Every structure is written in structure tokens, then in C-alpha cells.
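re: ur msg from earlier - yeah i can do the zinc ion complex, just paste it... oh wait u already did. ok heres what im feeding in:
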Amino acid sequence: MRINALPSGNGFSFTISHAPEKSLARAGTISTPHGDVATPAFIPVGTKATVKAVLPETMKELGAQALLSNAYHLYLQPGPDVLDEAGGLARFMNWPGPTFTDSGGFQVLSLGVGFKKVLAMDAQTFRSDEVVAGNKERLAHVDDEGVTFKSHIDGSMHRFTPEVSMQVQHKIGADIIFAFDECTTLHNTRRYQEKALERTRAWGIRCLDEHQKLTLERSQKPYQALYGVIQGAQYEDLRKKAATDMAALRSSDPDNPIAFDGFGLGGALDKKTLGTILTWMNEILPAEKPRHLLGIGAPEDLFVGVENGIDTFDCVLASRIARTSAVYTMEGRFNLSNAANRRAFEPIDAECDCYTCTHYTKAYLHHVFRGKEIIAATLATIHNERFIVRLVDQMRAALIAGDYFDFKAEFMGRYKHLSGQARD
Ligand SMILES: [Zn+2]
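and the outut:
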């Protein structure tokens, strides 16, 4: 019996080039049929096959190596068949590189139901195992087979199962796709977390089976790597169990049991314990497979991720806050629409090499934000995405140079941090 017998030469691989001792951090390269990603890397989010307000060409120029879209949103609109006919996500959106899609597990629950706030790190007010919206109407029902949910666009009813998620993600055609999971919140009861974890494990096998079947059926298409998702909330035993279980999971084909190509670390994560929780999982997960931290992207959290063994990150925070005039600098975050910037004829961050900082002043950005001009979102998003992409690139360079912790100390000594976890 062969274990993890993925077709060799399928175009997907992960190699680690540097792994400093006394830390789980590593630098390496993920190779996909659409190109390579030097890791650790920040993967900007284009939820609906677009990074809002910014051209894909510009995303490439500012250093993005890959983009992450969402299966739930693309399933509702334009529909997976359209992406399949278009030649897959990358070609459809004119992105000349690797792509990821999130499975939709998080979104069918959070957007179908409105518990998004509970997943945010600062949420404190919600405690229930019932999946309900603010208006108490149940919009998503989870059972052992899958999730039935109401579209956030038009209220129509839909059902996602592990098989549907795989079918949708195969048609969308991203290089890296995620298994369908049940994402819980920090406020679910322990008993419910256990139940959800077992459900996610069972769904993992069904995802592997469907993925294996679709990979064979669609063998003329570029290979798609499937990542299993590790949940377990804030519980050490559950996180460790999930990591152990998902690492050992195989498809049910007795002749060719396939394993996950990598892992997504998901769920609500408390900022204070993020590093500890990542360590629980990453000490167990096989070192030779890539690990993606779902939905985390604030600068201080990226450091915690990198030094605890994360290879790739995605987060909508950089672009979402940009559209509200909030921008990152080496000194921390500030709002361009603040009156103090009205006559600030200098770049957002003098040390930033982005197109916005090399061509525009804070005074101009202040003006276009106050005037609600569309260009404001474009310019601020370019800066924020460049800031985060570059920061993780700098971490990678420091890992390779052997001075990661010096780089971190220097950055954190200046940077005033705020919270940030966000998935679309
Ligand atoms: Zn900039």
C-alpha cells in the first residue's frame, strides 16, 4: 500500500530551504502549476476574484505572489461553471500566478448567519451553539451531511456538503484549495467544539475522496493541491487531536489512499494565545507540508505566525481598512481622513516603496477620502497591501539571513499595534 501517493510530477511541491533552530519558523518555496510562492508569504485576498479597487497587474507589481478568492462567493456569483469555462480562476481574473480558494465552510456559516462578529478577536457578547443572526432568524443549519444556508445576496436557499465544496473548488480551478470544515467560535461550548471537530474530520475524508475522484476525472486540468483544515478553538487537547487526525487522514481508496497536500489552520483565534495554539498544531503537523493560517494579517500577528511555523497567510484586513482610510506605517496605523493630514505634503510612510508613497502625499489622500473619490480606495489599498506583502518578505529575508529576531525587535519597537483578524 502506498501512502500519500499523489501523482508524481503533478506540479505541486513544497521545499524548505532554511529552518532556523530553536523555532518552528522556516523559509521555502511552494511550487504550483501556475508558478511559485516563496514562503513565508502574505497572500492578498480577492474574495470575488478581484482585490477591491486594485488591478491584478498592480497587485503583481506590488509584490503579491498569489491571490486567495472564496468558493462561497464565486459559487453564488458568477457560478463555478463560468469559471471552469473561462479556464479557471487565474485566467478569468487576469492574474498571472498561483491562486488559492477558501472552501466556503467559514462563509456559509458566517455570512449565512451573521456571526461574523463572534469570530473577530474582540468579540465578547455572543454565547450560543445555535447558529443565528442578530435578528434571531436561523439562516444556516449544520448537520452531519453538510450545511444548508441562505444566500446573503438574494435569500435563496443552498446546500454545501464536502462533496459540493470540492466540486465547486475544482471548477473554480485554484492551485490550492481547502477542505470543507465547520468553523466554530470561541463562544461555542466545549461539547459543541468536540462535535464540530469530529464532523470536520469526517468531512475531511469525504473531501479527500471527492478530490481524488475529481482529480482523476479532470486529469487534463492543472493539479490542485488540497489542504485539510485544523480546528479546535482554544482547547489544547482538541487542537492537538485535530492536527494528529488531519495529518493521518487518508482517502478511502484502498489501492491509493491520498493525504492532504498541506494544512490550513483555522477557527477563531485569540490574539493573546495565538502563538501557543499554533505551536500545539505545528509541532504535530508533518514539517514537510505547507501550513496556511486562515484570515490573520495584522503585522504583529504575522510575526507570531512566522515564528510558530506558518508558511502562508491571507487576510482581508489590509484592503478592508484601506477603504476606510486606515493605513499601516512603520510607526503603526492611522487614518488619512484625520484633519492632521490636510496639509501633510509627504508620503504615508517615508520608508515605503509602493506606488502610492512614491507618487502621492497624505494631503492628497486626505482630500480624496474626504471627497469620497474612488481613487482613494485604490491608492490606500496599494499602500496597505504592499506594506503587508513586503513585511512578510522582509521576515523571509531575515530568516534566510539568520537575523529574524533582530528584525522583529526593531519592527515591534516602533510599531504600535492594534487587533486584526478578518476573513471575507
Ligand atoms: Zn506605501
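cool cool. The pocket of zinc ion is lined by residues 348-349, 352, 354, 356-357, 383, 386 (CB under 6 Å). ping me if u need the other ligands too
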